[in-house]
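Thread: Newbie trying to understand structure tokens

Hi all, I'm a second-year student working on a class project, and my supervisor (Dr. K.) asked me to get a predicted structure for one chain before our next meeting. I've only ever worked with sequences, so writing a 3D structure as a token string is new to me. If someone could post the tokens and maybe explain what I'm looking at, I'd be very grateful. Here's the chain:
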Amino acid sequence: MLRLSPYYFETAVIFLMAGGGTGGHVIPLLAVARELRARGHEPYFIGTDRGLEAKLVPAEGFPLERIEIGGLKRVGVRQTMATCWQLPASTVHSMRLLRARRTAAVFSIGGYVAGPPVMAALLEHIPVVVMEPNAVPGFTNRRIARFVARALVNFQETQAYFPKGRTELTGVPVREEFFQIQPKPRQATLNVLITGGSQGSRTLNQAARASWPLVQKSQLPIRLVLQTGRASHEELRDAFAATGLPGEVTPFIADMPSAFAQADLIVCRSGAGTVSEVAAAGRPSVLVPFPFAADDHQRRNAEAFERAGAARLVPDKEMTGEKLFAVLSELAADARALACMGAAAKQLARPGAARRAAEILIDSAKAVRNNSV
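---
Reply by user tm_fold:
Sure, no problem. This is what the structure looks like when written as tokens:
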């Protein structure tokens, strides 16, 4: 039976949010933490000084406890050895934090930062609720799958990796503005948004640039918006301006929901956060998985969207200017295909994910309390 301490009977319950490194990990955790705080509870985070959590979590007013830990996947022998050396100490430190803060339950979204606190929670018999945003679980979530109290997933097929009866298809927290985007009637000009994320994508940037002469020559009626990242912006901006094509090349798009709303088609990577936003917006997409993502999860995400009829999948090595132009030409001429892809994407959207995750966390803490009474 799970151990229980008196803090479970306090009005404000304390929850640990475990995970970090990238926005794909930190942003969903923050969304759930806000829901918990709105209900009068006290979430806190464990992370590193190197990850995005070091910037975003304090800015949101949540406590952030630091540990020293690195990755284990595709990091080289030196980093693997360093991580193995850090793991026991970080796990012990996490156990002390769990006890000191009287933590009722742990919410994890995976990633190497989540490893020590999740391991510590299991050793302390504290319930762990995981959110798996990708079609195939990451390393940490695969290793702890049979021990979790609940698993919240983004894809139907992901449920097979966790014990039967402990999963729920909740989706990943996405900003409400994406769900408010309305279907866009097809106009004579196809508005195409190409984005490789805030840092940009070399593959997408190069393919976009190589496609411009082909678009010019064919007089294809499209308008292009390219988010390049800051490193490549000036060169690509000048090259695009020289073409005279309609559109915009920008280093960063601050209001991405508005950019999605104006787009008829989105060309992007297939990280969990990105595809969740595409689904919430109900927009057709061309997905180009990042080939070096851990466990090749971006390819699995894109395959799930393609099976649903919501997207076209183009492998990174095949995404050239010629390929991009061919796909854009085909879809520009097929308004019905675009409409069907957008409708299929919308069917994959899961609103209310943060709210439901908070409810499940609270229920998990209550279940421990009730079993100990």
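A couple of things are worth pointing out once you decode it. The chain has two domains: 6-173+352-372, 177-347. Residues 1-9 have pLDDT under 50 and may be disordered. Feel free to ask follow-ups in this thread.
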